[in-house]
Amino acid sequence: METPTYNTAFAELEELVAQIEDKDIQLDTLAEKVKRAKELIKYCEEKLRGIERDIEEVG
């Protein structure tokens, strides 16, 4: 699987949040989507920390 850009990962995360908030979501599907959302949150946080470090080095 190709490494997503921050924007792609964030867009997928937003879509997952909308699906997770659906009151009719099945429990098995919910668990799968929450797991993927956690992975995306971790990825986005790491990307942001890396960008922050790069900016601090420049400044």
TrEMBL record:
Pfam families: Exonuc_VII_S. Its EC number is 3.1.11.6. Keywords: Coiled coil, Cytoplasm, Exonuclease, Hydrolase, Nuclease. One of its GO terms (molecular function) is exodeoxyribonuclease VII activity. InterPro entries: Exonuc_VII_S, Exonuc_VII_ssu_sf. Residues 13-54 form a coiled coil. GO terms for cellular component: exodeoxyribonuclease VII complex. One of its GO terms (biological process) is DNA catabolic process. Belongs to the XseB family. This is Exodeoxyribonuclease VII small subunit.
